[in-house]
Amino acid sequence: MSKVFTARQEETIRDNLNAFKANCHDFRIEKDDYGKGFYVFVPAKSDSWVQYCYNIDYLNGWLYGAVQGMNKIVKQDKGGPQC
Q1: Rounded CA gap, 81 and 63, in Å?
Q2: What does the domain layout of the chain look like in residue ranges?
Q3: pTM for this structure?
């Protein structure tokens, strides 16, 4: 994926991307042709993307959230609804 990201972008998402790789083995990320965004495809051979992230920070947060969701780790606010 080094062709998709600059060195600085790779540094920004390294931890969350590694966690995502450990939890989701069949995916690909493509750079947006005209903007600063990224498309995430699961499975890797899919023609349809599952998420569009409009910048590297959004992608970093999405990767984090995706791993949390895959592992059913959800922080609850004590004042919020109890499930």
Answers
A1: 25
A2: 7-70
A3: 0.84
